[in-house]
Amino acid sequence: MGSDEKFTYHQSSPRSASQDMNMSIQGLRAKHQQELENLTLTTQPFRTLKFFTLAAIKYFKRSLSYLLAHGGWPMVLCNVVALVGILLFTIDGPHGKHIEELRQYLQFGLWWVALGVASSIGLGSGLHTFVLYLGPHIALFTIKAVQCGRVDIKSAPYDTIQWKIGPSWLDKDCLEFGPSLFSSLHGSQVPLSSILPQVQMEAILWGIGTALGELPPYFISRAAHMSGSKLEEMEELDASSTEDNGLIATHLNQIKRWFLSHSQYLNFFTILVLASVSYDFLSIF
Fold this sequence. Notes:
Radius of gyration: 29 Å
Shape: extended
Largest sheet: none
Oligomer: single chain
Helix content: over 70%
């Protein structure tokens, strides 16, 4: 009888130890998940910036080590190009006007890409830079082109709204641009096909910025998937699938589940289709 009790004790002891370990692991995971949810710029700004800086330094060191290990020559070439660029920017000479024009193009590109990133991220403010910048810029250019009857009113492709600087063509009189090129019996009628090429570059750069702004959530979701944690959207869909929300809501949940379960096989085409839908159209819902 004593041997049976000892056997039962030895059999249940490892099981209880493993159960305690599993419970402690689950508790640590729940605590870690709670800390991640509370780690935002608004609630813990200094800690968030600290972790961001540490992660940026870590990825920079990893990228530098990879380049040195697998691509020594490209690294040397990049350093040479950077050194030549610094010399060209600091030394005066006949190349100064070309460097200044290059600077204007770089500033133009960074401005519209940054606006796209800001529109996609928002930083919790609901900032939509299409409504604030890109949309008014296109509208103002279209109005000015129709008033003057011509589309060649920009002094350069980068002659757009940039920070606190307005475009040079906005306050100019139409006589300064020359006679109208699209005159008709009903006044100036500038075709849409002539206006689009004049504003498509800033629109494309803004779109690239919005795509770049969507990369951090993608990498966060990918890391969560690789760590084995369940997505919050899947938990909400699992909870709503057990409820009777009506026919339309049930079909919508089925479509959402299909997208989430097949997105790893249809990544490119899914993102392409969803990105083709206007953000303003989705905002209506």
